[in-house]
Amino acid sequence: MSTIVFTGGGTGGHVYPGLAVYRELPREQQERVLWIGSRRGIERGIVGDQGIRYRAIPTGKLRRYFDLQNFLDLFRVAAGFFAAFWILKREGARLVFSKGGFVAVPVVAAARVAGVPVVIHESDADPGLATRLTAPLAQVICLPYEESIQAFSPSLQKRAVVTGNPVREEFFSASAQDALSLAGLHDEGGPVVFVTGGSLGARQLNQYVGEQIGPLTEMATVIHQTGEHGADMIQEIAAAARPGRYAGFPSLSGEFAPLLRRSDLVICRAGAGSIWELAVTGTPAVLVPLSSASSRGDQERNAARYAASGAALVFSEDQGGSEALLLMVQTLLQDPARRESMARAARAFAGDNSARSIAGIIGRIIE
Ligand SMILES: CC(=O)N[C@H]1[C@@H](OP(=O)(O)OP(=O)(O)OC[C@H]2O[C@@H](n3ccc(=O)[nH]c3=O)[C@H](O)[C@@H]2O)O[C@H](CO)[C@@H](O)[C@@H]1O
After folding, report:
1. Among 56, 76, 206, 367, which is most buried by a count of CB atoms within 10 Å?
2. Are residues 88 and 140 in the same domain?
């Protein structure tokens, strides 16, 4: 029986939506899935935990600036291409589904040469480099928004389908009840603020929490996901928090969806996956996008697009420091009617089950 190959990695945003699609496939198709990722990327652990077969290939980063590493990486990408080609042939691959990230580029190129149909999905409002490189090789290009189509040439636009962003099933079904106990806290029934920096954590959010943990925990119970790089600060922040009102974690897994459901407000980066999970759980948010000075600016555009729906507010560095953010949080926590209208806007934004639509596209191609 031929294999369905999933690929994608580098950050959680290029892995979790792929898992959401995987889980919507019929069981007999799930059993045929193999994930191709990198040797050391975040995807290896996440995919491995799901019991999905995994093969690693060499990968190189695609930088937009000049660096001597680029030459080395060219060889790594070429090695990745041949490794992927060999895997696709040996497995008798029937289809490749790419969730993007650098590792996906040689896999999609190999699929094209091997004559294997490719479906790709882009999460961000405007396509990243990997999507721009792989779109011409794809049979179907799945995009989050109608206006995302404009980024492609007229011939590629014909292959584009607007699917929204796939969110894992647990975000639809999670219950808020007992969520705080999963974080080791007693639920007093008061407001809960969840601060999350996305799959890699966010130093800036960690700094804000560190500076304002006293007043924040006077207003609410605070759950804080720091990223691995912030693990060392958790103890110090906990010591400055009101007792019983703070729990910090480098990363969360099964607790994530229930905690989103229980939260009255989330403060987070504006990664595409994070935004769609907020939408599905109907959780009001303050988005603090990674600035265009330190990224390609996708989070600023994601944030602006989502905030325009009324589901979130955007806080940017030039609005002030942690005191200004605290004020915004306080204003929202004191206004339940406003949060209720934000929650309604969020749920309306989420729309249909995107993972199911993409699984349907895959199913029709491999029929
Ligand atoms: C710094 C960076 O490059 N960020 C990009 C990355 O964000 P990032 O990798 O953070 O991705 P998203 O915000 O899209 O999704 C984060 C995912 O990680 C999960 N999660 C997070 C923390 C945790 O402890 N446990 C956990 O499971 C969330 O549930 C979510 O599914 O990919 C996104 C999608 O292309 C982009 O929009 C972001 O700009």
Report:
1. 206
2. yes
